[in-house]
Amino acid sequence: xxxETMQDRIDRIEERIAAACSRCxxxxxxxxxxxxxxxxxPKTIAAAAECGLSVFGENRIQEAQRKIPLxxxxxxxxxxxxxxxxxxxxxxxxxxxxxxxxxxxxMEALEKACAACGRTLPVTLEVNVxxxxxxxxxxxxxxxxxxEQADALPHLEPVGLMTIPPFAEDPExxxxxxxxxRELRDDCARRSGIELPELSMGMSHDFEVAIEEGAxxxxxxxGIFGKRGSPWKxxxxxx
Length: 239
Fold this sequence. Notes:
Number of strands: 8
Strand content: 15-25%
Low-confidence stretches: none
CATH topology: TIM Barrel
Mean pLDDT: 94
Order of helices and strands: HEHEHEEHEHEHEHEH
Number of helices: 8
Distance between the termini: 29 Å
CATH superfamily: Alanine racemase
Oligomer: single chain
């Protein structure tokens, strides 16, 4: 058999997204695929772009600072990892959206950084729906006030919520966490009157269940790029 190509993997992901949308009566256009390109270099990202992908997710500021300038200026970038407040100033020049806003303190730091750059960033608030001690994210009860706080900041635009549920081999076991995030989003929108159209949830192993429960951004890494090799470095031969 011929070796599987990146286009093959992307086509298969697209088929699975379309099938999940069909099962729950949603339009394929209502779900955005966000390829997670962490540890992959500009050469691999360029190959993905040639397959039609144009928005990529990164989760490490230092890696993104080195990598993004080496990639096509036509690509767009979303930050999806944990962001330390002292690195918030590096986000607005590089990224078009932040999925992982997880504290009021970070909110203020990012607002200051965006104001200095004269730009507004859409953000989703990260929620620790399962209460895992090892995960970042706000507690569900903190989210309504945080949404209103973000909305009051002139350079941040809260557009929804994000979560990373506990890993389970059976994707069905994550469904209840996706339901919880959707219900929390709906409650926040109803109480605040703020439109929150986005739900960033679901990864390579469980994105179909996430779509069935309302995901609008699914973050897929290994499903597109295959198993991760050594992390990309600026002096790597893969550049």
